[in-house]
Amino acid sequence: MAPTPKSDLLQGTLDLLILKTLSLDALHGYAIAQRIAASSRALLQVPQGSLYPALHRLENKGWLAAEWDQTETGREAKFYTLTRKGRLQLELEVADWKRLSEGIGLILAGAEE
Amino acid sequence: MAPTPKSDLLQGTLDLLILKTLSLDALHGYAIAQRIAASSRALLQVPQGSLYPALHRLENKGWLAAEWDQTETGREAKFYTLTRKGRLQLELEVADWKRLSEGIGLILAGAEE
DNA sequence: ATCGATAGGTAGCATGGCTAGGCATGGCAC
DNA sequence: GTGCCATGCCTAGCCATGCTACCTATCGAT
Known about the structure:
The structure is a homodimer.
Chain A (H helix, E strand, L loop, with lengths): L12 H12 L2 E2 H11 L8 H13 L3 E7 L5 E7 L1 H25 L5
Chain A binds a DNA duplex through helix 2, helix 3 and strand 3.
């Protein structure tokens, strides 16, 4: 499949990815990772050991709410939804990302002054 | 000037910025920070407490070489140049950055599957 | 004389993702 | 029927990296 799956992403982007993904659908953790991989055409892959701690972190910050429910296949899973604070945070992180990627883009383009 | 100068950038991008900046010119540390700010139209700003340790780190990894010289204004300053290894590393980091920013772009665009 | 800009540096902290494990269940192939 | 893979959740401990907050020194302009 991908020539270099290359697991690690940059610090700080994981929250953004999770928040954005959950802004479209309430999902359980495992499905979040799948959705991120699918939506990014496998460019980004989130290892479980990064995902679950991140979900707990975001929940502690009040950006996500969790509840146990059943998946379509009848299994128990913890579903996460964005809170109002989470939506605000998502907007902030999107803005930060745009600033950063624009800045880096300028520099990589070799813009002088 | 910028509404939210917002100091901190994402972890992992600093090396890329330094390497790219030095790929165009040999510069001393202080000038690197200025160049990054100028090239990014002040979107990105590197605090000294991040910059100097990073330069030492990159030098230890063999990606930069340093030597003391004089600035145009006659001051002593430590000028850094990219090594061959540094150029290779730059290519890697540029590729990683593209993968990441493309991936995030897809997700923010709401691409499904 | 003093202040801002130029130029370099350090110590210590906090964050946050990774590796590497573990646990449990369900469905499918053999 | 049993063994394995996918699904689903989790934690401990490490380590890399950038940040804040300092310090030092020189130079030019006020």
